[in-house]
Structure formats: C-alpha cells, structure tokens
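anyone seen this seq b4? input:
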Amino acid sequence: MRKIIVFLIILTFVGIAGLITMNILKKEDNENPATTEGTVQPIDLSGLDSYQPAGSMATVTDAGAVDASASQSFTISMNFVGDIMLAGNDTATSSIDAMANSQPSTYFFENVRDYFLNDDITIANCENVFSDNDNLVKTDKGEAAALEQYNNAVAEYNSAVALAQQSGTTVSMEKPEYTFRAFWFRSHAATAKLLPENGVDVVSIDNNHTYDFGTDGNMDTRAALDVAGVDWGKDGKIVYKEINGFTIAFVFGSMYSAGAEQAMLVDLEEANANSDYQIVYFHGGEEKVHAYEDWKQASCHNLVDHGADLVIGSHPHVLQPMETYNDANIVYSLGNFIFGGNNYPENRTLIYNQTLTVTQDATTGAFSVTNTDVTLIPCYVYTGESNNYQPAVIENETDKQLVIDFMQGKRELPY
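predicted toks r here
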C-alpha cells in the first residue's frame, strides 16, 4: 500500500512539472510566433529557364516589424506574350471560333495558364475583333482597287488572245493572276472572357487588325473586353496597374516605319509623370522576318531615351532577338502565341517573364527597383500535327536552348 501511495505522489509531481514545461514553451512560442505570413519565397528567376509557376509571386517582406527604420521590399512578376488571335479569317469557316464555343474555356491556354494565374500581371496583344454584330462592314484594305486592277488586266489579256487568234500569232503576255490577300479577324463577344479566365490581365488593341470591321467593330471589341474585365490599351489610352503602392504604366502603339514612335512619346511623357515604372508594348515591323530593322531599333532606343523601362514588340508573327539598351530590356518581337490565322504558323514562341524587386524607403516612402530578373520560357505555338491553337512550354532541352540562344543573338533562327 505504501508503495502505491509513493508512486501516486511521484506521478502527481511529474504531471505538474509537465504542465509547467508546456506553459513555458507555449509562452515562448507566443513571444516568437513561427508564422508563414510575409515569408513566402518568390520563384527563383535567376536563370533563363528555371521558371516554374507556384503560388503568388508578389511577396511583401515587412522588415519594419523588426526594425522600424528599415525598408520594405516585394516582388512583381510580369509575363508577356505576343499575338493572341482567338479568331479565324472572316471570309472562311473559323475552326478556332467553333472550338471556342465547343471546348472548355481552358482549352487554348491549358498548357500555359498556370504561368499566368500565378504571376501578378500578364500582358498580350489582342489581334482580333470581338463582336456579335452581323451587320458589320469589313474595312476596305485595298481589295476593291486590286479587284478592279485584276479585271482590267484580264480584259486586256482576253483582247490580246482574240487578236492573236485572228492574226494566227501567239499571245506574248502572261495570263493575269489575282494575288491580292487580306484578312479580317473576328470572333463572338463572349470569347473575350477566355482571356481573364486564363490569367490574361492587360491587352493591346493597337494593331493592324484593330479596325478590321471599322469603328463599330472596334467599339464592340472595347465593350466585350470591358464586360470580360480585361484592361485594354491603345494609342492615347495608358493602362496603370498598382501593386503595394508601386504604379506601373503600360503604353501602347503601332510602329510600321521610322519615326512612328513619336506618337507614343506623348503617352510616355504622361506615364512618366504618373507612374514609377513605364513599359511600352508596340505592334510593328516587317512580318515573317527574324532580324529587327535598323529603324525599329532606333525607334525603340528613342523610347528608352524618353523614359521607357521595358519595351516589348509584336506583329512579325515570328520571334526576334532581345537586347539591353541603357539598362532597359527590349524584346523586338514575341511572335505568335495563340494564332487562329492559319494552320501552320512558325512553331516557336515564348513567354517573357520580368520580375522586379521593389524597395520602398521607410522614411521617405520612395520606391526603387533594386533588382530585375528575366526568364525566357520557350514555347511551341501548337502541339498537334497542324495548328491546334494550344501553345505549350518546350520540354526538349535542345529545342529550348535554340530559342534562348536566338533571343540572345547567338544564332539566326530559333530552331
């Protein structure tokens, strides 16, 4: 009996000591909480091909919680892609428009959408009209003049044939061919919702297909994008995005010849006065050419000289290399991304990621970009035997490196 009593006394003391120890540990934990808030690590973008989407990339480190005089830093991750054309030529049956109506809303983006949903801002060029108006009139792109010229040439040829038959001679002129080509791209207004549902936040509607169906078609496009919740920009309309008080301005415009950047300089001046970081996204240059023109390089340099921190180009339908000028990156063409224009577009493109580390001075509140990481994510434009309108990240290391080397100016072609 005495042993049992002694045992119970010892057990009581052990229990009390355990409770005291648990309370001490709990107090220490409360004084030094191990919270994950504000400690999420941004994706490592130090390499050109190390990017993998995983969670939010806008991470705020509140150093002031430890030292009130310290600065605060956070990252802003931006993905840029080239032409998104969610439409086929209006003069033919559009398979891409049919897919938009029959496939899941993720179909076109399913191989790349994680990148866009897990960044802070995704920017693209919108290369088609969104409208349900069946009464829209196609813009004359020279078709009437070309048809008249062709008909006159045919009449002249027929006269020459008749004369040759009468005289027993041969016709010295070739039979004329109708070579005029032009394209008008539009899809249903509801198709615009595919952009934000797959992470696209901002689009340019300043390109050579903006007015394929005149002012009415352009106004319908703006309305469709507004309803979908996509910010759109053009010459004269700057898009501003603010993250943690840091304002980024997106300036848009078209450049098809030397000096065309002058129109964008007006918007750029306004952007400089109202933002902390200025990005120009332009449409221009010669199509299907992998080398950027001298005049385009001069125009882009001029944009940087007037305050652009980053310049992105589209329109050639193929990739063109990038360069750094006065500490600003210039990507001359991102090529096609989702392209409903034909069945066999050049099958190389990329996602250009630029991630800023922004530091805010705790005393003055002023922002500064303390680091810029660039990641190139080479992609195929399509993954079927012909265009299935589904870009995908290139997994083949050789193909991937060829694109990266091309973008860095180390080779003439990206394949």
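The CA atoms of residues 88 and 94 lie 5 Å apart. The longest strand covers residues 72-85. kinda curious what u guys think
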